[in-house]
Target: Clathrin/coatomer adaptor adaptin-like N-terminal domain-containing protein
Amino acid sequence: MYEVLSDVLRRADTGINIGYAIIYECVRTITAIFPNIQLLEKAAEHISRFVSSDNHNLKYLGIKALAAIVQVNQTYALDHQLVVVDCLEDPDETLKRKTLDLLFRMTNASNVVFVVEKLITHLRQTNDELFRASLTERITQLAERYAPDNSWFIRTMNAVFELGGELVRTDVA
Model:
């Protein structure tokens, strides 16, 4: 099965929509079966083309596929973190939300400051109450889990309380 998936990824034509569809389904299959390092690397490499595309639909599929890869092994998606962050500048609100979800999943101790900064920026910009509640929850979780030091944690939580204090869970406040 691994050989077939590798061959299909190699042969798929990314110049047409059906080629992208085949690659996407291969990536979904690769993330669903027992992990194979070479296949995961190829999948992440192919998906980077989706995420860096000008087509919003391909970007969305790329973000979804990277989210699936992150569930298997976070390191493959971390290589594409800057491309993922570029998707936050897209005017498509759905793509922004999926991208923020992916960034949340990709966060670790080494990139928490950067990711939380992006989440706080979006907390400042959005007026959607459900999205604001989700952002405050995620920022709080990341700050509690990966805070590099106490002063950063305090600054981050102060920003959250200023921007969305009414949305912070009572057990956190």
In short: The CA atoms of residues 103 and 115 lie 7 Å apart. DSSP finds ten helices and no strands in the chain. The two ends are 51 Å apart (CA to CA).
